Automatic annotation (TrEMBL):
Residue stretches making up the Mur ligase central domain: 38-152
Alphabetized UniProt keyword annotations: Membrane, Transmembrane, Transmembrane helix
Listed SUPFAM superfamilies: MurD-like peptide ligases, catalytic domain
GO CC annotation terms, alphabetical: membrane
Organism in which the protein naturally occurs: Rubripirellula amarantea
PANTHER family associated with the record: PGA SYNTHASE CAPB, UDP-N-ACETYLMURAMATE--L-ALANINE LIGASE-RELATED
Listed name of the protein: Capsule biosynthesis protein CapB
Lineage of the organism: Bacteria, Pseudomonadati, Planctomycetota, Planctomycetia, Pirellulales
Keyword Transmembrane helix applies: yes
InterPro entries in UniProt: Capsule_biosynth_CapB, Mur-like_cat_sf, Mur_ligase_cen, MurCDEF_pg_biosynth
Gene: capB_2
GO biological process, one term: capsule polysaccharide biosynthetic process
NCBIfam families attached to this UniProt entry: poly_gGlu_PgsB
Length: 398
């Protein structure tokens, strides 16, 4: 009987402690009047950074946390610090981020949603963020093993983080009805970014960035900044001056023993639509190269992504070689050959070091070459970007 009472007492203490922490977290949230929750398949890290930069430029004391290529906490003065994770990523870390933002007396907090499982996306919004402004960049075919099986299912999963009685912004068009349903259900206001809004982002506006930024991302971020009272010109200037995510699309040009190697970091794009788009952009940027080398960084824990990309590349502008790095490369190779890619064009560098991968790139190059990384930036992808960044001329991708 004594043991049972002790167990009940312990359970009660745990429950009471959880309730107290929940109430404390709710009070902290109330101290931050502007809370912006950013989600989407592609571009959410970039959009979170753009919104935060625009608001900082407008004089709003803003903290931002992104979970893109590398998890980062961005403070009100623009300085960045890595987010400490004692083990794997966990949505509960948002509680710690909110506490930090309050300690810095933030007027605004921009948080990138870090959940994939649909019910966790809802939990992050309803329990951890309670956004005044929800933002979804787009809904495309990615993480279908968790949010699929179809692109429309991805949209429904993302809709879980539409705020209650807030404002909701999106640049998605194909599945706007899904988000409209969620917005009406939760009593929020829909602000959809139209083609006309994107058209207002001029080539001159985009020329201010030192990397490739997409007009849709800029239009979306500018609209959010406008809603919190920051003028367009002020917000745009802040965005130009902000540090990009390490996964931003940048070109690195290298002269290596009479070989001109032009390396483009496109690793952050990993759904078929986005990846094909940036591959075409790279080919337009370097139309006269003698060799075109497409690098796919595969991950054994992302088999659906490898299978998707391998199955569609036959329909893209052709590369001379497909260099497969990372792990689980056979999944990509099987899908690519089944789709009609010449197996002799596949070059395997499974679990090879960056130095070894670079040597293989040199062997595949001839005169001048375009080398572009795609599929995943985690692991060896980021290492390869750093390798070229430390040895090459960085060029704005214009």
């Amino acid at each position: 009987m004594t043991a049972e009472l002790a167990l009940l007492g312990t359970a009660g203490a745990v429950i009471a402690g959880g309730l107290m922490e929940s109430l404390s977290h709710r009070r902290r949230l109330e101290k931050i009047p502007i809370r912006i929750h950013v989600n989407g398949t592609r571009g959410k890290s970039s959009v979170a950074r753009l919104i935060a930069a625009g608001m900082r430029a407008g004089g709003i004391r803003t903290c931002c946390k992104t979970t893109g290529t590398l998890p980062r906490m961005i403070l009100p003065d623009g300085t960045e610090y890595p987010v400490f994770r004692p083990s794997r990523a966990n949505v509960i870390e948002q509680v710690r981020i909110v506490k930090t933002a309050v300690e810095f007396e933030s007027e605004a907090l921009v948080l990138e949603c870090m959940a994939l499982i649909p019910y966790l996306q809802w939990l992050c919004e309803d329990k951890l963020v309670r956004a005044t402004h929800g933002v979804i960049t787009n809904a495309r075919e990615d993480h279908l093993d968790v949010m699929g099986p179809s692109e429309r299912d991805v949209a429904w999963a993302l809709a879980g983080m539409v705020p209650v009685n807030g404002k909701f912004f999106t640049a998605e068009r194909d599945h706007i009805d899904v988000f409209d349903h969620a917005v009406k259900d939760r009593g929020s206001e829909m602000i959809a970014i139209t083609e006309a809004d994107v058209g207002k982002v001029t080539p001159l506006d985009l020329a201010g960035f030192s990397y490739v930024e997409h007009a849709e991302n800029v239009a979306l971020a500018l609209r959010v900044c406008s809603d919190v009272g920051v003028e367009r010109s002020v917000a745009l200037r802040g965005m130009w001056e902000a540090k990009p995510d390490p996964g931003a699309m940048v070109a690195y040009e290298m002269d290596f023993f009479h070989r001109q190697i032009n390396f483009v970091n496109g690793f952050a794009a990993n759904d078929p639509e986005s990846t094909q788009r940036i591959w075409k952009m790279a080919l337009e940027r370097y139309p006269d190269v003698e060799k075109k080398i497409a690098i796919f960084n595969c991950r054994a824990d992302r088999p659906d992504r490898s299978d998707q990309l391998g199955g569609v590349i036959k329909d893209w502008p052709e590369a001379d070689s497909y260099l497969l790095i990372g792990t689980g490369t056979y999944i990509f190779a099987r899908a690519a050959t089944n789709a009609g890619i010449d197996p002799l064009k596949l070059v395997f560098a499974e679990e090879q070091s960056v130095d070894q991968i670079f040597e293989m790139i040199v062997e595949l190059s001839e005169g001048s070459s375009l080398v572009m990384g795609m599929a995943n930036i985690a692991g060896v992808g980021l290492d390869l970007v750093r390798y070229f960044a430390n040895r090459s001329r960085r060029r704005a991708f214009k």
